[in-house]
Amino acid sequence: MNSNSASVPTATPKRLFGHPPGLTILFLTDMWAEFSYFGLQALLVYYMTSQLGFSQGKSSLIYGIYGGAAFFSPFFGGIIADKWLGRTRSVVIGGLLMMLGHFAMAFPAFLFPALALVALGNGLFMPPLAVQVGALYADDDPRKAHAFSAYYMGINLGGLLAPLVCGSLGELLGWHWGFGAAGVGMFFGLVIYLGFKRLLPHDPGRRMPAAPGTTRVPIDARAVRLLVVLVAVVILFRIAYEQSGNVIALWVRDQTDRSMFGGALTIPATWFQAINPLLIILFTPLLIHYWGKKPHSGTAALLLRRMSFGCMIAGGSMLVMVAAAIVNARTGQPVGAWWVLLYFLLLTMGELLVIPVGLTLVNLLSPAGFAATAMGAWYIAKFLGSVLAGVMGSYWGAIPPALFFGLGAGSVLLAAVILRLMGSVEQRRG
Question: Which CATH number fits domain 4-202+219-429: 1.20.140.10, 3.40.50.300, 3.90.1150.10, 1.20.1250.20?
């Protein structure tokens, strides 16, 4: 059962491209928030190894712990939003904390407090904002799945701009310029959110305890179990996926030939982090158009099968890196950039069938009154995946690269098998 139907405005709102205008506001708000988040992420490993003198292993571990904390906090942030703050106040407070954290990153002595502020703010910001996307639509509105894909495209538009702007400023002008630009991005996001708050769904506020003698809203135990298993399986996908900003970033810097025009120009390593969000922006409208023609595209069984197929494609991206590592080991020379381009192409295609589809499934299965909490639980997969990816990344160099990437491929392909089995079970039950 989903709690969002109660939040849908009773009056018929104006439409923008067939969707409520509130979707555009949430799209832009999250775009700037993700610009700030990915701006920091694009610089973090390079900053720690080059500016602070941290070892690669220590930097990868810090990167993984920070990424994990940033996506474990949404579980508690969702509870806080549901029970105490309400969605709007939670988004605003979270955004302010993230903005302060990004500005604090400009000072080396504040590295750990700054990362803590960003992680805490992210926890308060993300779950209620995503829940508001679903609250724009009735439960049976077929546009909801398309809305989450469009919302996810906004995330990646910010991710595309971040390495190009923050990464370039950090590498060319100084680290504090890059981190400062990330803070400014979060400021823009808050201005848009507060300036157009009237277009957003009504905030139900904090969840009140049931009065004596009243009937509690029933919770579908099967749906809750499915959510728990879904989160556990997505962790396997995340272990490999989170290497894209960690070990893959180091591979691009150290084992990839980034020269152009006979060595006259070298592409900045941070620019490669823009490939994934750029491809998402290009592919998402095509997917939305394709899915819009499919009847019954929002059932749990079909969504699970779609996620399984996405994991299979993402597993192929890791196999590409296995092949690249073998070539690198044989020649002892940096490999062509097209290996990384093919990696990001397959990873992105898989991601589009896993992450936004998973958000739709979580929204579909969320128990009434616990929408933000359930959305926060979804981010636990990113938390554990980031931590495990960081631990795995700390062994980069200790084990052969081909084996390293092979382990990542095995993790994602295992997730594909489990999701396929879950989809088959749901189809039989349906």
Answer: 1.20.1250.20
